[in-house]
Amino acid sequence: MLSPLPSAKAMVPFVSVENMMRLVHHLGVETVLAELTEAIEADFRRWESFDKTPRVASHSRDGVIELMPTSDGAVYSFKYVNGHPKNIVDGLQTVTAFGLLAEVSTGYPVLLTEMTMLTALRTAATSAMAARHLAPQGAGTMAMIGNGAQAEFQALAMKAVCGINTVRLYDIDPRATEKTARNLAGSGLEIVTCPSAQAAIEGAEIITTCTADKQFATILTDNMVGAGVHINAIGGDCPGKTELHRDILKRSDVFVEYPPQTRIEGEIQQMAPDFPVTELWKVVTGAAAGRRDARQITLFDSVGFAIEDFSALRYVRDRLSGTDFYQNLDMIADPDDPRDLFGMLLRAK
Amino acid sequence: MLSPLPSAKAMVPFVSVENMMRLVHHLGVETVLAELTEAIEADFRRWESFDKTPRVASHSRDGVIELMPTSDGAVYSFKYVNGHPKNIVDGLQTVTAFGLLAEVSTGYPVLLTEMTMLTALRTAATSAMAARHLAPQGAGTMAMIGNGAQAEFQALAMKAVCGINTVRLYDIDPRATEKTARNLAGSGLEIVTCPSAQAAIEGAEIITTCTADKQFATILTDNMVGAGVHINAIGGDCPGKTELHRDILKRSDVFVEYPPQTRIEGEIQQMAPDFPVTELWKVVTGAAAGRRDARQITLFDSVGFAIEDFSALRYVRDRLSGTDFYQNLDMIADPDDPRDLFGMLLRAK
């Protein structure tokens, strides 16, 4: 199934940032978000066929570097991703990423791609997939608290997949809100900029929090959250970094990707190790209930999981076929006689 | 210390297989092996300053795909490496690899490189470093059992670092031995091809085993190994894959890289969990004894550890300066305003 691309074994197709952006525009941003949502949901439906492991994190004072591997037995993927909140001060991305697909049967890589852009897309698609199952019927308005790099992707995914028509923006930095409003101006969404988080969540059926501080923060307090909403909590995604007051968690039904990882990294790191959660894949397959009634508060405690990257990488590889949105990298030494690696070196002289 | 290369943050220098071979010839193979040995030994000397974790392995019927991360607090590295013994049947490498260096302070990658060739070089350099501390004084002859992709690198590293002058070759497949003899013809080493493992080890002070079967094999049996030799056991490097009869281990002083990994992957997987071993880094710093007398059998149970890759990646990056043996990859999305990732996408349209 990974066949159509370059077959020369030594060559690995590489998708640069520029080519990823070309691919996204070629297909259309909302189409990509909608198709990614389907790709991720398809893999959540076969969740049990994946090797799962919490990401391998290397923490430092300034941030974290993580490797996120998974495999379905036929295809292997991993993502390299960092999280450095203070990068923004130096004009750098807080999150950058790249990823790789390989054939399990040979171990040979078959795709290398930038994943800063792709992670933003898949994170939004995962949120939309969760909201499709958990948000109240007919939700039309999303509050978007934290207007950083993820904000527009979230808004467009919720529009493309869940049919929202209004986004209410708030950020502690008004320039971030201006930026987001400007970028979404031609999107068909009604954009409302708000002076506070409290104002932003007014009338919103979906509340998305996506702020970047590496600390225990309280973007939402309990009194702010009314009955019946769906909270899409993106920013609490590493140890010591949360966004919601714990009292909100106690009133909510909490849905997670992979509990062993979320209990370390997500909002529920504030709670006891046996705090009840529902695995999102079980909602997707129908094995567990999603939203049960109109007054229930549902909370997707999203930290990002390797299977979502796997889906995104597979999707990109499929969509690359027949395009020229990649270059071939001479990344794998592949001598004619595999035992003659040294002879290959000798002959290169 | 990672400064001289391209500073454009979005660009990651990439060393292809072809450029790696150009770099090696530019410097000279034996020079690279000798300098790599020094680089690895320097990092073994500060072993305690590294984050260490057993590699993250994804096992399948046909082989294994592994990620090997480490960090010294300033620089992070990881290697992707597969091990698929049956690949050779399909004309593929059993081991292919690539690796990455990143700045811990920002999480930004600063080097991506092929590591199939580089792993062969660093594995041989690590063997030579161990042999320099453990082989008998004045060792002049090495037996090389298993004449696959690693054989020539091992021979040249032992020549460059330990001063051996003779290599005695044996492989179950005579064509592998012919290939190795041919490749080493101009090296200055005396090459003796042997009809059996038993014949190969005759008179050898250093015995290197490097065979590829993924199974419990017995390349050496106890009666074959005389007093005073140094055994450099390379091929036992994943669960279920060993080369030596366990009776040899009982007679030897065993030296390892990182015990938690070697007890799973190395020759000592055959022994009890408390089988005594000495960590090689302690020999390098003088904290533990290496060879104590002329009759002792020393055994380096080598499985390869992430710090060796770290050393090799750092070495390559240093040696790239002032050369054109790399290309810049547009791998990191780096918008002018880091929060404006979506604006970057919009403007690319």
Outline the structure in words.
The structure is a homodimer of 349-residue chains. Chain A is an alpha/beta fold. The relative contact order of chain A is 0.18. The first copy, chain A, has two domains: 11-117 and 307-347, 2-Layer Sandwich (ornithine cyclodeaminase, domain 1), CATH 3.30.1780.10; 136-304, NAD(P)-binding Rossmann-like Domain (Rossmann fold, 3-Layer(aba) Sandwich), CATH 3.40.50.720. The first copy, chain A, is globular and about 70 Å long. In chain A, strands 9-8-7-10-12-16-14-15 form an eight-stranded parallel beta sheet. In chain A, strands 2-3-4-5-6-1-17 form a seven-stranded mixed beta sheet. A two-stranded parallel ribbon of chain A has the order 11-13. Chain A has helices spanning 17-27, 29-45, 116-134, 151-162, 174-183, 197-200, 246-251, 259-265, 280-285, 306-320, 341-347; strands at 11-15, 56-59, 64-71, 75-83, 97-103, 109-114, 141-145, 166-170, 190-193, 206-209, 216-220, 230-233, 242-244, 252-256, 278-279, 297-301, 327-330. At the A-B interface, helix 1, strand 3, strand 4, strand 5 and helix 3 of A face helix 1, strand 3, strand 4, strand 5 and helix 3 of B.
